[in-house]
Amino acid sequence: MYLFDQIHESWYPAFNLSRKLHDELEKLYEEEYVEPAKEYLFAPFSVPIDSVKCVTLFQDPYPNGEGIGYAVAYNEEFKKPKSFRIIEKEFGSELSPSLQEWKDVGVLSANAAMTVKHGLPNSHREKWIRFTSKWIDYLDKRQEVTFLLFGRVAQSFNNNIVANRSRLFYAPHPATRHHNFIGCGIFKNYEPFQSINL
Questions:
Q1: Which sequence spans correspond to the domains of the chain?
Q2: Distance (Å, whole) CA 127 – CA 107
Q3: Which residue from 3, 5, 14, 156 puts its CA 20 to 30 A from 46's CA?
C-alpha cells in the first residue's frame, strides 16, 4: 500500500510528499511496533481541504491499538478509552466511536504526532513537528478555520496560527488533566457542535 494514497489530493500542497518521507515511514513501521496501523495513518486528511471548518488537535494516537487515525476516534472492537469518555462528558452527549458526527460538521481531528510507539505515549513527538507545522501553516493561511488545541503538545503549535488567531482556543488534554478539562467549555467555541449536542 502506498501510504500517501490515503491523503486527498487537495492536501498535497500542504505537504512535502517525497519518496524519502514515504520510505522513512515504511522503515519506521518495519523497525517498531507503531500505532495506529498503517491503513489509518493519514485518515484525517482523506477529506477535501475545503470541507474543513474546524481542527481539533490532540497529542498523539492511542498507544495500545484502539486508534483509527482520526484523533480520539477508536475501533469499536475495543473498550471505550477513558479520554473518549471524558470528552463525551464535556461534550454533553454520547458520540460514535468513529466521531462521524464531528466529520459531518467539518471537523478534522488530528494528533500533533501522527504515530506513537506501541505502549509509549509521546514517543514520536519530535518526528512529526515539521510535518504538523506545515499543514497547520498552510490551512491557516488558506481559509477560515476554528482551531481547538488540547493539551501542551498541541498548544505548542499556536504560533503557526496567525490568520485565524481570533478562532484559536485552548483546553487541557482530557487524558492527563481531566479534572481541569471537565467544565472548560471548549466545544462551545465551534457553533456546529451545538447541533450534535441535542
A1: 3-45+52-196
A2: 24
A3: 156
Distance of alpha carbon 23 from alpha carbon 46, whole angstroms:
20
Per-residue pLDDT tens over the stretch 94-151: 999 999 999 999 999 999 999 999 999 999 999 999 999 999 999 999 999 999 999 9
Yes or no: domain 3-45+52-196 corresponds to CATH 3.40.470.10:
yes
